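example protein:
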Amino acid sequence: MRNYFSGINFTGILIALGMVFSLSVKAEEIGSVSTVFKMLGPNHKIVIEAFDDPDISGVSCWLARAKTGGISGGLGLAEDPSDGSIACRQVGPIKLPDDLEDGEKVFNKRTSLVFKTLQVVRFYDERRHTLIYLVYSDKVIEGSPKNSISVVPIQNNF
């Protein structure tokens, strides 16, 4: 019997995958409320999660997002709605990095098995010395126009 996997470096692939997944920011679940009772599986709910900006210390964000319940939601097979809300605040001194990039992804969360993701991107309004965080949902074929923003005026006398 021939070994079809002999030329593949699985260790290298696993290390690369580990690096990709370790770069994503993890959100801390703060709480949730049920919105629809489901007889089988978890209820539909709104989940509140918090995360810190990975590149700018002193900024934290809180997301509220819809999570689909039921049997398919409990198994991770359901597609969550594109609804999300965000609030970001200065929680400490802020020092902007020299290589700050507009539209840089600071957080993402898979909201379906394969094709849909909730994204948070950051912009910097230099004239107003303000950080802007935008939450939206994208899909491989078609995203959603539903979005929410939060602004953080940088106050160095924190």
